[in-house]
# Entry
Amino acid sequence: MSAEHAFPERLLRFGHHEAIAVTVGERGEPHAAAMGVAPAGADIVMRPYLNTRTLRNIQAGSAVSLAFTHDSLVFCDVVLRPSRLRFRRGRSERVYVLDADVDLYLETVPRSVVLGDRVASVFLRVTDVYEGSRSYFPYSRANSMLIEALVYFTKLRALGPGASPPEGDVRGWLSALEYSISVVERLGTSELIECAEEVRRELEGMRVLR
Ligand SMILES: Cc1cc2nc3c(=O)[nH]c(=O)nc-3n(C[C@H](O)[C@H](O)[C@H](O)COP(=O)(O)O)c2cc1C
# Structure
């Protein structure tokens, strides 16, 4: 491993990790979305679906900040309560960062975008790294499972209306979602359970479940 490659590979040592990506829209407004990221040599690769605002903003020239946190409530706000999100300018004027309970911020510049059939691979060059407010807490299954539930929830939400009856992948996503919510309900605090219930309520309003 060259010294240049060492940073992304050391930071993202388990391969695929979850981040909150903040991009800037055409009118200068920040936009946050949960996105998976992985090391790609000296860069970091992120794979947004083709129809995401995140990809549109990047294609229009936005820089990208990544926020890393273990706190599922931050993911919950990003996915379900975007109006609650607060942003501030990054260390570079070009980016906004999420103002939340975050361990580490990366400021990045997209170096290249490769379009696939369903997702794009966006290669990000890291330009700055600094710590956030950092909060230490031990591993919690309920916390991890809430993030897991949000992953499957966003997959189902992205299908839009008319994807019923559930079949194939969708059936698998629904049972993963049910299982993860059941762990949150069994082991989580009221804050975590409240988010899981919000997921359930939103799902009930989506035709995919009928
Ligand atoms: C933990 C987590 C990871 C996610 N990873 C990705 C991803 O790698 N690519 C993607 O397109 N959507 C991913 N999603 C779903 C998006 O965050 C969600 O659909 C988002 O609203 C789409 O992006 P947009 O708001 O920019 O349109 C993820 C969701 C969660 C909760």
Observations:
- Residues 3-131 form a domain with the Pnp Oxidase; Chain A fold (CATH 2.30.110.10).
- The first strand starts at residue 17 and ends at 24.
- The chain has a mean pLDDT of 93.
- The pocket of flavin mononucleotide is lined by residues 18, 33-36, 47-49, 52-54, 75, 79, 147, 150-151, 154, 158 (CB under 6 Å).
